[in-house]
Amino acid sequence: MIRGLLVGAILALVLGLGIGLGIGASGWLPEWLPVARQESAPPVAPVPPAELVVAPEGSEERANIDLFQRARDSVVAISTSAARRGLFGAATTEVPLGTGSGWVWDGEGHILTNAHVIQGASSASVQLADGRAFDARLVGADTVHDLAVLQIEGEDLPAPLSLAPPEPPQVGTKVLAIGNPFGLDWTLTTGIVSALERELPGDQAGAIRRGLIQTDAAINPGNSGGPLLNSAGQVIGVNTAIYSPSGGSAGIGFAIPAATVGRVVPELIRTGHYSPPTLGLLFDARINSAVNRQGLDGVLVLDVPRGSEAETAGVEAAQFTRDGRIVPGSVITAVEGEPVATLDDLLADIDARQPGEEVAVTFETGGKETTVEMALVAGE
């Protein structure tokens, strides 16, 4: 009996709590419960808008901004087209070929870019940062150094960029690249000079492009022909190639150094082509590589022009036996006292000079060493 009363009392208590909790959830809470009071919150003061923080004077950020604003208008976007004849005698049409970058070289409307940017094109258009576009004519191109000059005619053209002195920059020098990667016009990327004197295969079989600047500034397709600038806004190189398994930037880009640009471009403007300096002697890359592998250091001379300074000095050409063996004649071992071990060494030295310049070339003939002063001549 008592047990039944206790169970009933407990059940009633539980039901009472349930009803009370249900009423509380419905809003009918006793007045003394503080959570039930509905009081107006005091007004919240509005948060003032944040002030735009401008890069402080003297900071690297401010330097980047200022340089881009100064150089931007002198960089151009280049688009090329190629003529394609339709099937069955249909009319010839112009089809888009590619895009690239370039920059204003002088006040005569000359635009510098890469030779590969305009390769295969029948027409080219140059767009300025202000939106104006001009048809361009080809002034000259040098595929060995991958440089080309276009020209546009118009009023109030942008000021030219300044070419840096021919002395190579130091590794670690800050650089900025402006161009049109993937058609994204006037893009700025930054980095440093990662290395100097890099080599890449050229367009022609066996050709090598020497003396390139390596940079980690992001360079992508479309940056070709654009300027690589130092912190002073001078052009230290012309962006030309990337190393990338994927086709995008992998942090390894290459630029043609200012020294090469300064030699080649004036002649392209003056004559329409570039004639590299040579010694006037005949060499062969494959033959020389073969004799180098056999232990011969130097460059094998294959032909000596009659009446030349070299012939007068006793320089001899190599001979070939009937069974294909090579009998060395004279071998170039040094230029201006600097050792020459391979044909690449020789060409790199000569390419940095000008036709007409006198150089001291050391030959070894039959164990006898001779140094000859030779005037460089313009090649083909």
Automatic annotation (TrEMBL):
InterPro entries: Chloro_Bact_Ser_Proteases (IPR051201), PDZ (IPR001478), PDZ_sf (IPR036034), Peptidase_S1_PA (IPR009003), Peptidase_S1C (IPR001940). Signal peptide: none annotated. Keywords: Hydrolase, Protease. Pfam families: Trypsin_2. This is Serine protease, putative. Residues 277-367 form the PDZ domain. The keyword Protease applies. It comes from Rubellimicrobium mesophilum DSM 19309. SUPFAM superfamilies: PDZ domain-like, Trypsin-like serine proteases. One of its GO terms (molecular function) is serine-type endopeptidase activity. It comes from the Bacteria. The keyword Transmembrane does not apply. GO terms for biological process: proteolysis.
